[in-house]
Amino acid sequence: MKKLLLLVLLIALGAGGYYYYRSLKNGPQGALVLAAAAVQSHDMATFEKYVDVSSVTGHLVDDVAQQSSALTSLIPGGGLVTGGALRMLKPALAKAAHQEVQRYVETGSLEAAAATAPKRMVNLSLTGLASRVASPESEFKGIKYTREEGDNAFVGLEITQPKYDTTMVVEVKMRRQGDHWQMTQITNSGELLRGVARLEKKRLLNQ
């Protein structure tokens, strides 16, 4: 999502989280270790074992559709986007987002991932939005919290955002799948987008 995650998660893990997590063997954190290792080795099949890409990207499109006001300051032409229009385009956007994630895992390049996004009047690349939340300069700080609720778990990953001199917490939802856990959603992507939009507006006003 370097990675809205997932797209954001990919950034957090790629920025150093993998080396922190590799000592963890079991539980939701262990699944994130293995997902990160799959990114490092460009192994999409293994990555999809620990990350339900269709679920993550589908939820992500829904969340973005509810944040049309935030898109105004985050992407060129974002003011032309309406939630209704995005919801109508959900199948195409979710498919494109899946392709972006796959391209990122296979190449390790955000540029290559963004290049797979279809050309539209509004450049709505989810990897492009991800880089607004977690820039290439972002660093992984650690796990803010882990909360298990039956077969579901919620993990907060704290990352830095040097551009705005702050930190952000990306919350991912994990689902137990037999003998392993699988990431299914970035639960606070809407909150992250709104927060970055506010910070960007403030930064521009202070220039």
Q: Which strand order do you get reading across the main beta sheet?
A: 1-2-3-4
**Low-confidence region ranges:** 1-5, 76-80
Overall mean pLDDT score? 76
Number of strands: 4
What's the Cα radius of gyration?
Answer: 16 Å
Secondary-structure element string: HHHHHHHHHEEEEH
Gross morphology is globular
Indicate the percent of residues in helices: 40-55%
Q: What is the rounded distance between the termini?
A: 29 Å
- Content of β-strand: 15-25%
Treating each run of at least 4 consecutive H or I residues as one helix, how many helices?
10
Content-based structural category: alpha+beta
Describe the biggest sheet? 4 strands, antiparallel
Characterization of this structure:
It is a single chain. The chain is α+β, with helices and mostly antiparallel strands. Strands 1-2-3-4 form a four-stranded antiparallel β-sheet. Residues 1-5 and 76-80 have low confidence and may be disordered. The radius of gyration is 16 Å and the shape is globular. It has ten helices and four strands.
